[in-house]
Amino acid sequence: MNIGLLLFIPSRAVENRILAAVVEAGFEITQAQARVLMRVGPDGTRLTELAEAAQVTKQTAGFLVDQLEKAGYVERVPDPSDGRARLVRVTDKAQEAVPVADAEMARIEAEWEQHIGKRRMAQLREALDMLGEITDPYR
Amino acid sequence: MNIGLLLFIPSRAVENRILAAVVEAGFEITQAQARVLMRVGPDGTRLTELAEAAQVTKQTAGFLVDQLEKAGYVERVPDPSDGRARLVRVTDKAQEAVPVADAEMARIEAEWEQHIGKRRMAQLREALDMLGEITDPYR
DNA sequence: TACTTTAATCAGAGAATCTGACTAGAACAA
DNA sequence: TTGTTCTAGTCAGATTCTCTGATTAAAGTA
């Protein structure tokens, strides 16, 4: 079986479950919004960087950040180092979703480790981490 | 780093590259269409099955199959075993894209193997294959 | 200062996706 | 056999996501 599909399936499973857990906990957010939100750094991130990291156009990133802002999950503040730019920052409200997502992720990892074993899980992570070096356009 | 994202990044890299190669070769097809097309079995597959495998609604699958049909990549034939159902089958035209996709996939795998080594590549494949058992709703 | 590049937004359109309602055939129970 | 229920697929309508192209304002540069 094609390794692209082999990667895609568990990748989507993770996305679906984490999103479901976060939504279940009362946070109204979509997958596309989450993908952008996930990339916002601790000190704020520029729209252009978010777009690049999430591999969408600036317009798309802007559209999603607008919604996240309206929902109160991010705020835009001026970038002191560049008058053209603004930094997108996550709000306290969004921070509250982090433990929910982390808990679900931990559950998933535990299930996976249960199924494939601790050794394979470590190997998987190592291989993926290395692949990120050549496949992550942001890294 | 989150294993969901770690899976997502190379998964998308594969999708992007294979789609680009296929489009480059003159096949006009989108990512969403390709995801459905990829799931059509050798003897034809029902719309409902395609929808389930690709994890979209029947309506969405139908919408995409309509487009694939218009473009000549699939055809719908009556299902002899069920008067309500029809089987979606890939046409010869679509079959011609297979070697193009395979060649690009082979290139990607070679690059990856070059970067992470043969052993890790085999371990990766093994781990992913096992994960499919618990994360692929279609399997 | 004038030119070029960059960060972000505006405007408009197209693609992908969904929910809800419907039709026709199949399966099943009385 | 005859209803009743279930299943495969479609129709209608709306929303969400995404893109291309053009514009504005600030920064960098010759």
Spatial sequence of strands, sheet with the most strands of chain A: 1-3-2
Number of helices of chain A: 7
Proportion of helical residues of chain A:
55-70%
Mean pLDDT of chain A: 96
Total number of strands of chain A: 3
The most extensive contact between chains is: A-B, 41 and 41 residues
Give the N-terminus to C-terminus distance of chain A in angstroms. Answer: 28 Å
What does the main sheet of chain A amount to? 3 strands, antiparallel
Rounded to the nearest angstrom, the radius of gyration of chain A is: 17 Å
Low-confidence stretches of chain A: none
Share of β-strand residues of chain A: 5-15%
Summarize the structure.
Two copies of one chain form a homodimer. With 139 residues, chain A is mainly α.
Descriptors:
three-stranded antiparallel beta sheet, mainly alpha, globular, 139 residues, 3 strands, DNA-binding, 7 helices
What does this structure look like?
The structure is a homodimer of 139-residue chains. With 139 residues, chain A is mainly α. Chain A contains 7 helices and 3 strands. Chain A has helices at residues 3-24, 31-37, 47-54, 58-70, 92-95, 98-116, 118-135, and strands at residues 45-46, 74-78, 86-90. In chain A, strands 1-3-2 form a 3-stranded antiparallel beta sheet. In chain A, strand 2 (74-78) and strand 3 (86-90) form a beta hairpin. In chain A, helix 3 packs across helix 4. At the A-B interface, helix 1, helix 6 and helix 7 of A face helix 1, helix 6 and helix 7 of B. The structure holds a DNA duplex (30 and 30 nucleotides).
